[in-house]
Amino acid sequence: MPSNKSVSDAPIFQFTNCRILRSHQLQREDLWVREGKILNPEKLFFDEKGSADIHLDCKDSIIAPGFIDVQINGGFGVDFSLAADDVQSGISVVSQKILSHGVTSFCPTLVTSPPSVYHKVLPQISIRNGGPHGAGILGAHLEGPFISKEKKGAHPEHYLSTFESGAFQDLLATYRHLDCVRIVTLAPEMKRSSEVIQELTRRGICVSLGHSVANLSQAEEAVRHGATFITHLFNAMLPFHHRDPGIVGLLTSDQIPARRRVFYGMISDGIHTNPAALRIAHRAHPKGLVLVTDAIAGMGLAPGKHTLGQQVIEVDGLNTYIAGTKTLSGSVATMDSCVRHFLEATGCTVETALEAASLHPAQLLGIEHQKGTLNYDNDADFLLLDNSLQVRATYIAGERVWSQDTFTI
């Protein structure tokens, strides 16, 4: 049956012999794509009287939405927190190389830096769609400098800032450019932080709580003012205590506003979080878990010395430390390895592991009607994976942008 060209002249692709992640279940059905979007086959058959132009045998692959990394500091020798003259070229290197790890969209992340770095770097970051050139850019994630000295982690203390004098104006003076910003991590216990959270939220910027000594009531107040995310849960925050669980307590708080969900990032690299802690968090609040890499410039490179903004980082195996210390500083994990480790550590379903890297970050950013699922009319950003969740091929807008050398369809 010929395709109905009265609707579109674009070719229709039918991916067969696959299991699709849809409605939280792997389902044995075909995937239909046209003009970069997921197509509803019933409308094609019954409304358009059409059929596929090109059939692709997926060789029993799992088809899942492309991964979305909302916290990645760099990789492959590129550090997003360095004031380079050509930031875009570095971002392009990372966006191209993470395709092989299933990432189709990401948020370049800057750690605490002097204002001059933000003033130079942020104007060079452009939000753009992905394609053969690399994964899409969803906007920058600014982690600091408005964080706690006590929980600064790998962030340089002498560049930390507060809101005490001018609140949101202090933030504007530090960053100067907010057009490309998607997430800001801050410590909610800081004076006047509520004003800042409200204004950032009003501008459509996601506020994340992290690098903080906040107690639970301070964290709950921040959520009431608009915060929706927790930066790398358990890391760089007060440890759980039964009388005041701190930010961790948000996972089971009964003070979250109606129809509001708090999401939380986790670095599932086998280093930052014990498997038992992963299991505790997942079982407490499974629908809020967002896998992040927190990857640094050393991701994809041999062990040795690398940078994270103003700091020198030593990479030893999967461990990353500020040089001369045992302070953890980001990771060298890839997103696909985080998904596999999460699956193994928690014993969750394959569907759950895949959604933690796709659906949940999309929901966090409010883009689940475009990305993060294989629902009809969504962007055709998806992965072909084998049964062990190794990435076989990566597609953006229905176009293959990476595949294993040994895998052809």
From TrEMBL:
Gene Ontology process terms (BP): N-acetylglucosamine catabolic process; N-acetylneuraminate catabolic process; negative regulation of UDP-N-acetylglucosamine biosynthetic process
The entry's keywords: Carbohydrate metabolism, Hydrolase, Metal-binding
All residue ranges annotated as the Amidohydrolase-related domain in the record: 62-401
Record Pfam families: Amidohydro_1
Residues involved in substrate binding: 154, 235-236, 243, 272, 328-330
Family: Belongs to the metallo-dependent hydrolases superfamily. NagA family.
Name the UniProt record assigns to this protein: N-acetylglucosamine-6-phosphate deacetylase
Organism the protein comes from: Terrapene triunguis
